[in-house]
TrEMBL record:
Its main location: membrane. Residues 588-749 form the SSD domain. This is SSD domain-containing protein. One of its GO terms (molecular function) is smoothened binding. PROSITE patterns: SSD. InterPro entries: HMGCR/SNAP/NPC1-like_SSD (IPR053958), SSD (IPR000731). It holds the Pfam family Sterol-sensing.
Amino acid sequence: MKVHSIEDDRVRRRNIRQNEQAGPITRGAAQGNRVALYSRAFFQLWLFRIGCFVQRFAWSVTIASILFYGICCWGLKDVTIETDIVKLWVSQGGRLNEELNYLSNVQIRNIQRRKREAPVKPVNAKKGHQAPRRRVVELPKENGLGGGFQVVIQTPSFTGENVLSKDSLLRHVKLMQEIADYHVDLYGEKWRLSDICFKPPSPSFNSGPLAQVMTKMLDKIIPCIWITPIDCFWEGAKPLGPNPPLSLGEEITSFLSSLPEGNITWKNLNPTTVIQEVGQLFDMGPIGNFFERAGIDGAYLDRPCIDPLDNECPKLAPNYFDRCVALKKFQEWNMAKSPEEKITLEKKELPKKATTDGLAETLLSDIFGKKRKKREDATTTTEAPKGKKDDKVEDYYAYEEDTDYKVDSIGNSTKLGKKKPKAPVDKSCDEYGSSLLEWMRKNPDRLGEFLSEKEMPVYPDYGKIMTGGCKGFGKKIMQWPEDLIIGGIKRDDSRLQSAEALQSVFLVASPFDVYLRFKEDKADLHPTLNKRRWSPAMAHNIIVSWQRSYTKQLYGHKANFETEGVRVFHPLASTSIADMLEEFSQFNYFIIIMGYVLMVIYAGFTQARIEGRWLAIQSNVALAIVGVIIVTFCSISGLGFSTLLGINFNAATTQVVPFLSLGLGIDDMFLLLHNYDEIINTVHRNEMGILLKETGMSIMVTSTNNILSFISGIVLPIPALRSFCSQTAILLAFNLIFLVFIYPAIIGIDLRRQRAGMRDLGYCSRRKKIPTTGSVPNSVSSKVQLTSMPSSAEITPEIEEFHRNQPWYTVGGFLTNHYIPSLKKKVVKFIVLTTTLVAVIASLIGMYYSTLGLELADVLPEDTPPAAFLRAREKYFSFYPMFAVLRGDEIDIPRQQRMIEDYRSELGKSKYMIKAEGELQPYWMSMMRTWLKSLDVSLEKEIAAGRIDPLTAKTAKKNGTKPAPEAIIASHLVCSYGTTFNCSGRLGSLKMVDTDDVINPEGFYNYLTGWYNVDNMMYYVSQASFFPAPPGWEVSEGKPGLVPPAEPLLYSQIPFYQNDLVDTPAIVKMIKEIRGISEGFTERGLPNFPSGIAFTFWEQYLSLRWNLFMAICIIAFAVFAVISLLMFNPWAATLVMVIVVITTIELGGFMGIVGIKMNPISAVTLICAVGIGKLIPVRKLEKPYNFRRRIHRSRRACIPHGAGHCGRAP
């Protein structure tokens, strides 16, 4: 009998297979798609050539490819991790991005216009009327969750706690005091919240002895704008400072009796009485008018005290408790007790005389030095340079004579500087009063022993007082709705009964605003600050450092650790989310390395073949380990290449992409190794060519479809998700190159080891002797036996294939022996198809009931303080700020005032808009209108009194009384229209605001200049954020002149507060409603757009379903195109498309059934899942077998590692 070699047998089998396949074609009897066959043959031919090439030049291909990947890794040096949540969430080039950048674009266009018009000389007001430009407010931009809005939420310390109680409210007061005292040390100075907070500048004063001093004092004492529930009570003044307190000494407090003695803070200051007293002595300008319109009154002194037993509770408080009367009662009661029962109160040392600071000395010098200076100048005069006058002299000579300020009537003295002797005072109340109040707080049950019912301290009804919200220090312009500051409310009718959370909001100014605030020489505020080096960048560093210190200290606040697992204080700053995203965007090398090590262990274990005491020759452990390492290298180089393309990293890049690319890359690597075991036992030449010829089509089709699936995710307009999909697609492309070129070359190198008889991972071991003759092996072991082969005539036409040893407990054994045979049964097919139909119907129902939603807390990592804050906010507060922005470059504001009012009113009709006492909060035009009305009234009164000439606007005294400052300002405004100053026929007849509440369009921008400069505090409160800012201007008494017109406003905004935005559907509904109103008025000729946190983060939901539909369509089309192109089989492509659609419906329906809300993140997950899920049906269809072998093809597609799941029955 002739013995045949293994090679002879392989040649005969290959010839038989080729003859069987080509025979019908050559005879013209073949049926089917010849084009598909030729198309497949073409691609397989090139795959075969690639395989042969990389096998022949294995080392060269490997080294060259690794060098190429190494060059791509060079891009990692320029990695940028994006942590700005707006840039991560808002798509570039869309409507929302254009709206967010509208102001900056307008500013750029305005600068370009100014450069073009530079040769044209602008019209200026008359000399003496133009003032330096005021510090222009730059409103904090909404960056992330509110930008300049810093928030702290207080939640119950135990279950069922009512925060509308004395203890909870006082806890919030103490917290706010701590926040106000937080500081950072930078540039040689301590920087507190009062230095960087958003607050209005000091009001403008007329020239006079006290103007500069009053400005300096108000610079120190004007508080930050807080939005806090403790503003309902006197204790709301405690955090406002100033810190440290202002000390003017006895000389000043005796000079101005309305000033409190000792340290001056908002706890004891009555600003209205101080202004009234100073206004009787000096001309204070329109400041009194401002105080009246703002409703400052007694500030906090007339508000109830949370704790009437507080030693500093003012006498004007409605529930003030007279400790002196109580002390007398207590002493009488205590003296009647026996010595053993007597209570001893601790004596308090009286404070020493307060020392004056530099401000007090300046005040004394400016007041008392004036008269001396005048007397000295009367005897000895020094001529000043012509055209130039000393500021102090000009300040003094703004007054006509000494009688304009009557210093002889100041305070309680009849002679300047001498106080009227005070009556003797019983000091026992000061010495023991505070100790008594402390004892009363500790022993509330014993107060009835010496006090009657009427004399008992009265605690306020906190719920009643806080119903409807609270008011800031300006009661008429600072109204905080209760929904903004109180959460978890329970009511008794309309009255607040209890609540579960308190929220305080304060604004941090922009870096440029802080820079301008300290740009001028203010040595009394920060004496060691280097003004030459001072810059906006330094201001930015101060703000960011303070914000981080604020969140860090509140994260570690002791109240958050008194009860395990219960956090009481939840802070958030604009840096919180950015810092947290930056932290979680860093590569966690330990987790990544552990993940890859586990994959190496798994890959090595699955590819190990043991023979004797070590790995067998045909073991592939080395290939598996090297494959995982190279896949890792591919991922790294792919990330470097994406960086070169300008794609930034984010949290998804660092936390998801490495593992996703590893899983998808390893999947096809296992497929190559699976078929490699078969190839080396059936082929002796061009093994890599045959391997790619048989496996390459599957890899090409599945990898290409995966890449296109992730590319389709770019349809979703979310930059973070686009970056994620783009990077993953690039990494998959690099993996595809690896699988087609590099890994076959590495396998070719390993093949030389097997042919040389070396054990796996035992390259120094002795080679195993191989017999000179061969036979067909019967197992995957390395043992080779000689077998007698029949003659060629005896070889049957059936193709004998290589069979594996697959025990029943393996995946292959289960599929071969149980799963695949069961699918041949009609009953199983019927059950599978019926189950699929039921699943599709149930999924359609689930999709119908699915809801949109992505809570902000879900975007952040779990168990982080920012996530805890957002959960508390979503639970208790559904408040969001909003602005209606007017596109001034397309609007004639003076002549469209009525339409602007209609627009604001229409927005106010929305149920989501918060109204204080039934009215929307005032905005810049309404504030300006109110101011102009008050000027009209004052002007009319002064003209009637003869103190203002209606023809020339000149002023005159009548009966020793000068005209009111408001009337003088009004006369300048009425006579100014455009660039013209003309009083003829205007004073006394023209009203700046007509009976229809419309501001005179002719002088609108002149009035805007006046309001901006004179009523600048109101401008800050209005949050109008004008651009361009009106020019500087100040009124000069006796010198009527033009009020320069402001440039037409290119940007202005109207603030709103929104509520009841409890979830995503409500927010989406609100956005649709507000967008509809906005677009309606834009069509009517009032271009505008809404802006705010809700619009920034939920705008994408308006088109989410459509974008998801488009992405799924792209995936389906990509599958159809790829399969049709590579396999030229439209029918097979259509079948896969149907499976893709069914998979999409089932996944989407399942998400709806289990309550997973639809959002951009889940949409990308769905897209990726659908793209990856089509891998199995594509592998089933890629082999050129007839329909009778579909079951066998299904088994072959299910067996490789990485594909542990199968598709439906064919």
